[in-house]
Amino acid sequence: MSPDGTRSTWPAPAGPTGPWTLQSFLRTRGLDLVVGLGTGAFGLAESAGLTYRGSYLDLDVLLVVLLVSVSAGLFRALPGAALCLFWLAAVIQLSTGTFALQVELVAGLVAFGAARHGNATVLWLSGASLPFGMATALVVIRRFGIDTPIYLRVLRAEVVPLSLVGTSLLAVLGLPWLVGLLLRIRAKAARDQAEAEARRRRAETQRTHAQEIAALREGQARMARDVHDVVGHSLAVILVQAESAQFLSASDPAALRRTMENIAVSARQSLRDVREVLTSTSDETGPGALPSGSLDTLLDGVESAGNPLRSSVEGTPGALRPESEAVAFRVLQEMLTNALKHGRRGEPVVVLRHWGSGLRLEVTNAVAVDADGTGGADGGEFGGSGIDGMRRRLDSVGGRLAVGHRELPGTGPAFTATAWLPR
């Protein structure tokens, strides 16, 4: 069936046992064959005794019977051809004065098939031909004499008015056409609904795939941020320790050994953190795997690296949600990493933890001074993705970040990063 409701597969489509078999033909076109043969048998019986001629050998009658029978058999498979054959039979009937009641009966079947199974052209041609069909039937009726059977005398308005006969003929032709049109509309609505449902399922599948891809990409980005934070912080701590080892006296091997031990501890901790990030569950949807250790662990690591650190806590410490706790750890880790990388050597890093309605983390470090006396860009306008990564982490838990320069008494230009996290 074509998209507009037509049926044009003839002969029958391939069956299960081959390209064409009698079984497949009977299964798909058996009804059409029965209708065509039944119409032909009725026409032959009518030509034998039910009409005024009563002869099997009347060539005009046999031709009309043949055309109408074939038209009836094609009303589903080839409705356009059925309509043409029916009108050819009507023309022969008018030109030869042949009468066969089957012509009027099959007209409704052909009209139904044209409206239900025909394409748009056949549909509207069949609808437009309904009045002409009624007029043709009336002309045929008026051409017969008074010695006709009772049903012909009824049709000739000898029993009922001719106007009522015409209305009845229009109903005989029009009602099947309207029924076919209604079934056509219902079938099209069902197809449209099925197509809409199929499009909805495809859209749902595409949306699901898009969500899965977005989740995978978010997981990759989260893993990349975690690795960046862990490795960057560890390397910054190790760099500070390695630089400080250059200034240790050769006469103090114990201090040199402690520095090397601190470097080894930092490296091992970095490896553990990276392993935890890489082995985190793939279905995790939070802002990141919960890191081992606490905020105090980060501060102790910076102090053990030999970098000066001033830490203070205000308010009453409280609990954060696990995802906020992970964000606080990673954000403070990134803040300390930036302070160690870009801060002025020998100047302390100032860390403030303020507990109130949430947690405020503030890290301040002195920056290098340019020739004009202002803070250098290297002191706080960090390259890379550090600040953007912190902002994304904080946004995921409803927090926010602020960064900027300020002047510290006795120290000079400094860079401050402040993060707010809700409880």
Write the layout of secondary structure elements.
Elements: H1 22-50, H2 59-73, H3 79-96, H4 101-117, H5 120-142, H6 150-155, H7 162-245, H8 253-278, H9 295-304, E1 309-314, H10 322-342, E2 349-355, E3 358-366, H11 386-396, E4 400-408, E5 412-422
Parallel strand pairs: 1-2
Antiparallel strand pairs: 2-3, 3-5, 4-5
Helix pairs in contact: 1-2, 2-3, 2-4, 3-4, 3-5, 4-5, 4-7, 5-7, 7-8, 7-10, 9-10, 10-11
Notes on the protein architecture:
The chain is α+β, with helices and mostly antiparallel strands. The chain has 2 domains: 138 residues, no CATH class; 214 residues, Heat Shock Protein 90 (2-Layer Sandwich). It is built from 11 helices and 5 strands; from the N terminus they run αααααααααβαββαββ. Strand 2 and strand 3 form a beta hairpin. It is rod-shaped. About 13% of the residues have low confidence.
Write a brief caption for the model:
With 423 residues, this protein is of the alpha+beta class. Helix content is 61%, strand content 10%. The longest helix is centred in the middle third of the chain and has 84 residues, at 162-245.
Which segments are poorly predicted (pLDDT under 50) over 5 or more consecutive residues? Answer: 5-18, 50-55, 145-159, 281-289, 371-383
Structural class computed from helices and strand pairing? alpha+beta
Number of helices: 11
Kindly provide the radius of gyration, computed on alpha-carbon positions and rounded to a whole number of angstroms: 47 Å
Shape: rod-shaped
Beta percentage is 5-15%
Distance between the termini: 64 Å
Biggest sheet descriptor: 5 strands, mixed
